[in-house]
Write a structure and sequence with these properties.
With 67 residues, the chain is mostly helical. Helices cover 66% and strands 0% of the residues. It is built from five helices and no strands. Helix 2 crosses helix 3. The longest helix is centred in the N-terminal third of the chain and has 13 residues. The chain is globular and about 25 Å long.
Length: 67
């Protein structure tokens, strides 16, 4: 899930969001964002969907299945 971690961080930074701000926007705790960006834990399908919707990208893009 290294690609996911990298893309999530890139999208968040491009929008000048802190991890705490992003967490609040999608309804998770900040530590979830930390774990996902550091490739420590894998997000649920629901979380991937929420992130994709928030950033206006596809789940496939986030997961590295599509460019």
């Amino acid at each position: 899930m290294k690609v996911f971690a990298e893309r999530l961080r890139e999208l968040r930074v491009e929008r000048y969001l802190t991890q705490a701000q992003l967490a609040k926007e999608i309804g998770v705790v900040q530590s979830s964002i930390v774990f996902w960006e550091n490739d420590i834990k894998t997000p649920s399908a629901e979380a991937v969907g929420a992130l994709a919707k928030y950033f206006g990208v596809t789940s496939d893009f986030l997961l590295g299945l599509d460019n």
